[in-house]
Amino acid sequence: MLHNYFREIICAFAIFASSLASADAANACANAKINEFQPNPIGTDPPDTTIEILCADADKGRGSNFTGWIVSVENDKDAGQGTVDRVAQFSGKFDTNGLLVMTMEDLENPSFTLVLMESFTGTKGTTDIDGDNDGNVDDTSSFVNVYDAIGITDTASADEPLYGQQLGGIDLPFTGATEGKEPSLVYRDAVDIQVLYLVDDSATSVKKIYGATEGKEPSYRDAVDIQVLYLVDDSATSVKKIYGGTVTDLAQADFVGQDPFQPTFGSVNPSSSIVAPTPSPLTSTSMKIHEIQGDSDSSPHVGKLISVTAVVIGDFQDGDADEKRNLKGFFLQEEDVDIDADPRTSEGIYVYDPNTYIDVHVGDLVRVYGTVDEHYGETQIKEVTLVEVVSSNNPLPSAATITLPTSGITKNGNGAYQPDLEAYEGMLVKFTDTLTITEMYNLARFNEIKLVQGARPYTYTQKNAPSAASYDAHIKELGARRITYDDGLSLQNKLICNLDGFGNLDGNGTCVSGGFNTDNSPRMGDTVVDLMGVLYYKWAGSTSSDATWRVTSIKDGTVNFVKTNPRPQIPPSVGGALTLVSANVLNFFLTLDDGSSTTQNGLEPRGANNQEEFDRQAKKLVNSIIALDPDVLGMLELENYFSQGSAFNALEFLVAELNKVAGAGYFAWVIPGQSYVDISDAISSGFLFKTSSIEWLGKVAVLRDEVLSSIGIDNSTAVFDGPNTNRASFAASFKPKGGACITVALNHLKSKGGSGTGDDADQIDGSGNWNAIRLKGAKAIHAWMETDPTGGGCLLKALMGDMNSYSMEDPIMYFESVGYTDVEKRFNGDDAYSYGFDGQIGTLDYILANAAFNNLVTGASSWHVNADEAAALDYNTDFGRDKMIFNADLTVRFSDHDPMVVGFDLEATTGSPVTNHPTTGTPISSAPTDHPTTGTPTTSTPISSPPTNHPTTGTPTTSSPISSPPTNHPTTGTPTTSSPISSPPTNHPTTGTPTSSSPISSPPTNNPTFKSSKQSKLAKATHAPVAHKPTVSKTSKHSSAD
């Protein structure tokens, strides 16, 4: 098959990529430097630029292979600053002088930062290391092992952002002859590579820089001392030498027998005499931390050069021996004898030290010289000029105790309420309360979770009528007792066992693949007692994890979660002879979301990205449905294509896979009689049923806008068709063997995601967006069901599915007002929930019974195997997720919604409900089956199954019970068999002709000749109208429109 060919190509590419990765990992040179380049060559820029790499190891890496990447980052202020705009991978061999020359596309004229790294995993033009354009590096997750970085500016303005020093390299000062000019040549000294020379853009001067500091910028390193940088001016007539922050102007005579103005790619660079200047004495004000912090949100000493002596309570330096807790700095706290008596002033502070001036350890007493700053609401010391270790192995200062909720609240960087913890900023703290896990949405991406004091909170409208004033009070109360528990890493998509208490470390204390997995994952509802760590206020580098209060353990093994909410091993016991189940299946698509394929109705697929993801998803879903063993199952988020025998029919495929496990013909699916249930969406809903206990009456109906006028509903505005509407409802009639028939409507109302207008705007009362359209949908569904839409004549009725409405919101209140009962609330009261969002739980998924059916219900409950689990456990593998987390055999996290399970008997224990004749009203023992063409009741005797109509003539072909519908030929429409179908045929990828009727074990390769206009792309956030940085992590395939 064609998809096997593509799989071979993908495998070959993976092997090639693996070989490159292996080559990267095998680099023998550990100290590679950017040795020479031309930021802005004299005259017309060439199509390519040459860059010389130096191996500064003792042996110069002579003869060793080297593979790396050169990346240029835009520095022009507010003009895409921080965005990667040039990318080149290269490989070569260092020569006898330790030099390797590569070429790449011409660099954009400065300002830019040139970065040399082992590997780059981002995307040119998209990857942004300074997402908020504040001049500070926020996200380096795509930069693997940075060797060197040099920032070049074209202006003397201090506002021009440079990233060289923040990335572990240097930033060079403006050296042009006139504003807007840049150095024409930059190179290191041949002897001391800390020396850089910068040739001006007229090639008339050279500047020499030694040990360049932030805001300084050379252009090439001295050949003898690479601490020296030379800057050739923009007229190439002078050279400036900067040594220890001192800029020195040089001329031709300073380079004996050498030309400092011309590039020497592939040859040893020029060198001048090197004289290290005497460092200037430090002048600073010695202060206590509580003086720096002050008694308000901001320090009264911002911009002041200070010195402070205190104990290291948190080692969060990058590049040290500890691979965990890397925030480019460390935390200090005053010794107990030095604290003040003011409870409003914090005794802790964060020291921003991106270059790791000196490696410090917890318990060190250190003296730090630096400048006071406020960064995203955090008071810190930055621009560190000196760190001295006074003594080591000191006892830690006492931890401050915090009791939640706090009396005061503030707002975080995203505008949400949070506890006022300013008095504890940067300190070692201990929470006196038992804290409960309420949210793990960002676990896979940021290794962070939400904790709350006390029990898990319910969404406001789960237990309260919508109210703006009361809702605000609710979220304030919640904000005052919620805190973020973080791993203390500034990188994204790292192994989850870096978060202390989540998974296991190996024998060396290292977090390795599989350390965190499905078996040992904590669940929402689990708790932690006496949580201790350092408290700080930071931004995680994305709007999906904004600046807020975070706590991180300072030592592995000090945080232990208690399994307060144990994982249920089997579905809930609901009694009764039969079960009716509603389940969201997390976008189960046969069309792979590979970036180029479209569904049969021309929309973007929303499920698995590749074959591996699909196999994981399908296996877990099959195992979960087998465990549920439903008599009737309504599924949401299926691929919206239901043509019999098609290789793109996800429902038919799923039934075939289930029957491979359960036995041939065990389950069958309800045939809608049309290819698409919803006319405007990529997903829709469908039924399967157990053939041994349930007979489908062959009757279905679909509620779309075309039906509204006939049921008395205003159709002047769309309710089910088009964007920002409810999905089409799908109803089918079933007859339990030995019982009365029931009509079940499967519904998926509009989500709360996005931004509505008018009545559909968020009223800030707890109902969220699109409440009005959901209520219109509810009213239409009720009116439609009153008309017996399937013609089944069933008195038993159930409405089920994802109503996207909590228990006290208008749609559910309306259904209850017209006689439907929320059966889970009937049995579980206010404790019911099926979904978690923003750390709060409630019911979005329902089975609502009319009075007749309610009389037969014996029990109802959600099976809490999805909503309480981390999204990290699902089938997704993208963004480098550890594949060892996944376990298809454990029936957990096959969706983000819990399945809803209802048990019912064939007759009520208090008296069997009476079924009336649909036209005469006379009681009968069971509803008649109407003749499929005349509509006349054919008998008043219970019918074991309806006749099967010929698929083309409509004439009944048999009155025998049907275990599953016939399979029609995919091109002629002629039935090929009346036997149960274990799987659909596989169609030829170009002709569409079936090639086999054998079960399909993997989804088809999409037809490369199929053409359709691409619709607007569907967002893929899991469950929230939250803006996510698009290139970092996908934690689920869900749209905000679900």
From TrEMBL:
InterPro entries assigned: Endo/exonu/phosph_ase_sf, ExeM-like
Q: What keywords does the record list, in alphabetical order?
A: Signal
Location of region: Disordered: 909-1042
What residue intervals traverse the membrane? none
Compositionally skewed regions (Polar residues) per UniProt: 909-927
- The domain of life for this entry's organism is Eukaryota
| Signal peptide positions on this chain | 1-25
The UniProt regions of compositional bias labelled Low complexity, in chain numbering, are 928-943, 950-962, 969-981, 988-1000
Q: Which SUPFAM superfamilies match?
A: DNase I-like
Is the keyword Signal in the record? Answer: yes
Classification via PANTHER family: ENDONUCLEASE/EXONUCLEASE/PHOSPHATASE FAMILY PROTEIN (AFU_ORTHOLOGUE AFUA_3G09210) (PTHR42834), ENDONUCLEASE_EXONUCLEASE_PHOSPHATASE FAMILY PROTEIN (AFU_ORTHOLOGUE AFUA_3G09210) (PTHR42834:SF1)
The protein here is known as: Extracellular nuclease
The scientific name of the source species is Cyclotella atomus
